[in-house]
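Researcher: I'd like a structural prediction for the single chain below. Treat it as a standalone chain; there are no partners to consider.
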Amino acid sequence: MRLTKEEKEILESVERGEWERVSGFERETAEIRQAAAATLRKDKRVNIRMTERDLTQLQKAAVREGLPYQTLISSILHKYVNGRLAEEDR
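Model: Treating it as a single chain, here is the predicted structure.
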């Protein structure tokens, strides 16, 4: 793995023992793990209709990304509803 100069400096600092855990680390870690588990839990189904061409394009994109196409679609929708899906200038 290639690290930037800044990342190397941080890693070396950690390895020298210059960092300390913040108070409440275990509690905060547990809260973050719970939030992550809730975010990843897929507990609702949605059926949508789309053109065969769009589905084929999504399936090809999923293969390029190494994902199941349903996972790619879910990821795209998640990014969209959270305002993190930006339109690319062409």
